[in-house]
Amino acid sequence: MIARTIAMMIVCGIAHAGEYRASVQRVIDGDTFDASVEIWPDITVKSRIRILPMDTPESKAATQCERDLAKRSTIALESLIAAKIVTINTERKDAFGRMLARVRVNGVDVGDKMIADGFARTWKPGTQGGWC
């Protein structure tokens, strides 16, 4: 039974909500990164993680102002998590197949820190406003 569960987790990626250790492989933008997530001792899967509860400017935005802000938020996130081990508390997958998760590094909630430092704002599904 355990072997079957592990096999399903490997095939499906992170199968259910929970807390996992992850090694950050690449920061995509200010609120998303790729990681190797340990789903069982010595078993990892590659996953794209969208950090909750924050939203950051889009790097492919129509305005140069928003693209500049996106670059700043990406650099800020890189300084917090790049090449580090983080703890993720997953909730679910989004429409793009990313895991939505709270993320901590050294006990600090990454989303809350990015919001407090002015690089992000609280994310509310279905609402988007301008950044500039």
What does this structure look like?
With 132 residues, this protein is of the alpha+beta class. It has a single domain (2-122), classed as OB fold (Dihydrolipoamide Acetyltransferase, E2P) (Beta Barrel), CATH 2.40.50.90. Helices cover 27% and strands 40% of the residues. It contains three helices and eight strands. Strands 1-2-3-6-5 form a five-stranded mixed β-barrel. Strands 4-8 form a two-stranded antiparallel sheet. Strand 2 (32-40) and strand 3 form a beta hairpin. The longest helix is centred in the middle third of the chain and has 18 residues, at 64-81. It is globular, with a radius of gyration of 15 Å. Residues 3-12 have low confidence and may be disordered.
- CATH topology type: OB fold (Dihydrolipoamide Acetyltransferase, E2P)
Number of domains: 1
Q: How are the strands ordered across the major sheet?
A: 1-2-3-6-5
Count the beta strands. Answer: 8
- State the separation between the terminal residues, measured CA to CA: 53 Å
Structural class: alpha+beta
Based on the structure given, which CATH architecture is correct?
Beta Barrel
